[in-house]
């Protein structure tokens, strides 16, 4: 279970989590006057809390994933050689994607923790002031290395197979279409 789900359960034992619409309506405070444009913009800006942290996580994730995936995929396909068929292309690509996604997820886990922390911050003013670096330092201070890698198992367990499935599906469809129209 993610940090957000755990945080909700600790506060509201036995209650069902609110839906997306209700959550959004609770995040944006009701603005009495439309004359104060700055307050209106701040109200909506809080919806984007954690975007910088998410991009700080996703860009390195993609860089690690793709720079690991391609050499590994080429190596595995090279082992199959001329005897490649759809099953061997599937196996090589799924394996490479699984390993690349798992490595990238593990390496970027601290950034995922920071993103989640920023998104669940209850104090809207503090949430708008927080930076990813400050959040990481706070997590380190509160929980050390264990805090930075909270949830690494489920994150790796989701990302590895997910990248493996996406890459292998794409490459198998490409292989089948190429061989179907090449003849």
TrEMBL record:
Q: Where are the Solcar repeats?
A: 88-176
Q: What Gene3D superfamilies does the annotation carry?
A: Mitochondrial carrier domain (1.50.40.10)
State one Pfam family annotation. Mito_carr
Bilayer topology annotation = Multi-pass membrane protein
Question: Which domain of life does this protein belong to?
Answer: Eukaryota
Q: Does the keyword Transmembrane helix apply?
A: yes
UniProt-annotated location(s): Mitochondrion inner membrane
InterPro entries xrefs: MCP_dom_sf, MCP_transmembrane, Mtm1-like
**Which is one Gene Ontology cellular component term of this protein?**
mitochondrial inner membrane
Q: Does the keyword Endoplasmic reticulum apply?
A: no
Provide the alphabetized UniProt keywords.
Membrane, Mitochondrion, Mitochondrion inner membrane, Repeat, Transmembrane, Transmembrane helix, Transport
Coiled-coil residues are none
What's the family?
Belongs to the mitochondrial carrier (TC 2.A.29) family.
Q: Can you name this protein?
A: Mitochondrial carrier protein
Cite the source lineage: Eukaryota, Viridiplantae, Streptophyta, Embryophyta, Tracheophyta
């Amino acid at each position: 279970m993610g940090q957000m789900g755990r945080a909700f359960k600790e506060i509201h034992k036995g209650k069902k989590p609110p839906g997306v619409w209700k959550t959004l309506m609770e995040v944006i405070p009701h603005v009495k006057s439309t004359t104060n444009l700055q307050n209106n913009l701040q109200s909506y800006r809080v919806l984007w809390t954690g975007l910088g942290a998410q991009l700080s996580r996703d860009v390195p994730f993609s860089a690690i994933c793709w720079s690991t995936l391609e050499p590994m995929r080429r190596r595995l396909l090279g082992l199959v050689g001329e005897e490649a068929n759809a099953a061997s292309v599937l196996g090589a690509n799924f394996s490479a994607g699984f390993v690349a996604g798992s490595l990238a997820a593990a390496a970027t886990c601290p950034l995922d923790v920071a993103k989640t922390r920023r998104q669940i911050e209850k104090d809207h003013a503090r949430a708008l002031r927080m930076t990813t670096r400050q959040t990481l330092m706070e997590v380190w201070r509160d929980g050390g290395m264990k805090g930075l890698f909270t949830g690494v198992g489920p994150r790796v367990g989701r990302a590895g197979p997910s990248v493996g499935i996406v890459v292998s599906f794409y490459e198998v469809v490409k292989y089948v279409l190429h061989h179907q129209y090449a003849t």
